[in-house]
Amino acid sequence: MSSTANGKNGTWRNWGGNVSARPAREVTPASVDELAAAVRHAAEDGLRVKAVGTGHSFTSIAATDGVLIRPQLLTGIRRIDRENMTVTVEAGTPLKRLNVALAREGLSLTNMGDIMEQTVSGATSTGTHGTGRESGSIAAQIKGLELVTADGSVLTCSEKENPEVFAAARIGLGALGIVTAITLAVEPVFLLTAREEPMPFDRVLADFEELWAENEHFEFYWFPHTGSTTTKRNNRSAGPERPVPQVKGWIEDELLSNGVFQVANWVGRAVPAAIPAIAQVSSKALSARSYTDVPYKVFTSPRRVRFVEMEYAVPRAAVTDALRELRTMVDRSGLRVSFPIEVRTAPADDITLSTASGRDSAYIAVHMFRGTPYQRYFTAAERIFTAHEGRPHWGKIHTRDAEYLSEVYPRFGEFTALRDRLDPDRRFQNDYLRRVLGA
């Protein structure tokens, strides 16, 4: 077990570069027993405890001045149950390693987010999601989990075992304990055909319900200051596999989506007035294409341009109104926005604090290039989202507190009561949890 901190003088920083913390000590347990011992040891020293994955959250959800638990030794697949079609995986396993390992076994998750850098537990604890008509977030695919609670005991939960903990801990925000293993539903690996094509913003809004209903996975990116979007539809396919050719893929996914986009953002940061012109070019840079591949190669893409992000879930029926209001706000504000706005959907689920809890949802994500002032844009966007009873993504920038969240989550009290029971001394508390869950 080590206790070194990364960065300068033991400072921890997140991926977006907007959150830092100085833990009293860092622990990298090699087993669940070691992790439980670290929690008990922290209690003896009167220190709070947080587990951190790859730091892909833009909120301070993982920040602590107490004990920072790093799960990178708790990785790999524990077992594959082909009869029940589940896989049990250690909490610190990066999604990209899980996806590759599952594909090798002829298996796949049903749905996933658009990046796969996060750990399994970090992604599920914050409600990471992709887009889907019938299939929900990664957490909605959880069939069981193992949790180290505040007193150092290990709790297993599923629909049958500790069901009230299971209902909440799938998206537990790190507030109920430290997740050590997750059992996910899997299915035989399948092929997806992706169809990416430009479409006018007004047409996407007019046809949104139709586009949603006709595709298993529909999403689009709108470039502010333009009337253009890039749409992406992913549907199951009988094959054959037709992956993006290597050179073409490098040009489109690396050079244009990451390289040229990075340069465009540097220019935009230096000369904000140039952003609308850059946006016009960016929105036309990617031409229509279609390809067929295994799910993780279709759902996910590399994101090398660093940014900060805010994302809200609004009722699906409200998404087109919210987007029109967003366009009006950007046009009138004089803001210069160099990053596209991403729109995805999820069906209602039964997880206590899931952003899709009990309601069919659409997600609207706004981004700003790392290092550019984002407050004015995000504040104006948040005003629109909250007017539609929006629920902020737990791992992305927002300013909401327990008072607001208890109004938009019907089962909020159920979660906080469970937390009182599992963590009465607030061993897993930090400033972020104090704000969003209340003291």
Topology:
Elements: E1 12-13, E2 20-21, E3 25-27, H1 32-44, E4 49-51, E5 67-69, E6 77-81, E7 86-90, H2 95-104, E8 107-108, H3 120-125, E9 142-148, E10 154-158, H4 163-169, E11 178-185, E12 187-188, E13 191-200, H5 201-206, H6 208-214, E14 217-222, E15 228-237, H7 246-270, H8 275-285, E16 289-293, H9 295-299, E17 307-315, H10 319-333, E18 341-346, E19 361-369, H11 375-387, E20 391-392, H12 402-408, H13 412-422, H14 431-437
Parallel strand pairs: 3-5, 4-5
Antiparallel strand pairs: 1-2, 6-7, 7-11, 8-12, 9-10, 9-11, 13-15, 13-16, 14-15, 14-18, 17-19, 17-20, 18-19
Radius of gyration over C-alpha positions, nearest whole angstrom: 21 Å
Helix content percent band: 25-40%
Integer average pLDDT: 91
What sort of overall outline do the alpha carbons produce when their principal axes are compared? globular
